[in-house]
Amino acid sequence: MKITKTKLDGCFIIEPTILKDKRGYFYESFNSKKFNELTGLNINFVQDNQALSSKGVLRGLHYQVGKDAQAKLVRVLKGKVLDVAVDIRKESPTYGEYVSVKLSAKNHKQLFVPRGFAHGYIVLSKTALFFYKCDNFYNKQAEGGIMYNDPTISIDWKLPQSEFIISEKDKVQPSIENAKI
Ligand SMILES: Cc1cn([C@H]2C[C@H](O)[C@@H](COP(=O)(O)OP(=O)(O)O[C@H]3O[C@H](C)C(=O)[C@H](O)[C@H]3O)O2)c(=O)[nH]c1=O
Hints:
There is one protein chain. The chain has one domain (45-178): Jelly Rolls (Sandwich), CATH 2.60.120.10. 4% of the residues lie in helices and 40% in strands. It has one helix and 13 strands. It has one helix at residues 32-39; strands spanning 2-5, 12-15, 19-21, 24-26, 47-54, 58-64, 72-78, 80-87, 98-104, 110-113, 117-123, 127-134, 143-145. The structure holds dTDP-4-keto-6-deoxyglucose (T46). Residues 49, 51, 59-60, 62, 72, 119-121, 138, 167 line the site of dTDP-4-keto-6-deoxyglucose.
């Protein structure tokens, strides 16, 4: 398993070791002992989520506030997405900055999104099956969001905006400046 740091402290890319043979491949998609040893963290994931979306679907930018904040370990089981993590830690030197990485069933890459980040993704393939682990439970009352096209973050979503498929909720999210963080 290879860990690659990003420019945002605490947010990193994981590339698992893929074991191939004449039948196909096998790999440990998550191993808490190896994950915590390699990252130096002590993460206890408590909830798994899965979402199926078609091309152009953009989910995000979402987070949960306060004691309900969630760290996420995200990956793609089918298709390809551009995954985006935005640093919304007020005291962070990279506050308001983002990293994006293409996650696909083919590259097996995973992104660890720490607490204190907003998260979103856009589907680049015909469909994408998205799977992620959370280290805190869902709490609707603690949900927060930021507009996907906030000009102060200026995310390059890689597809023309005319192709975006966005929930009614995500069409009216606040700017990062006005978000409840
Ligand atoms: C997140 C979540 C949602 N729900 C229910 C609430 C709605 O009835 C339905 C769809 O929720 P929503 O439209 O918020 O789903 P996404 O737009 O995929 O939200 C996710 O999008 C970005 C990418 C994230 O990182 C978050 O995990 C999450 O906010 O599932 C649950 O029952 N449990 C949950 O943990």
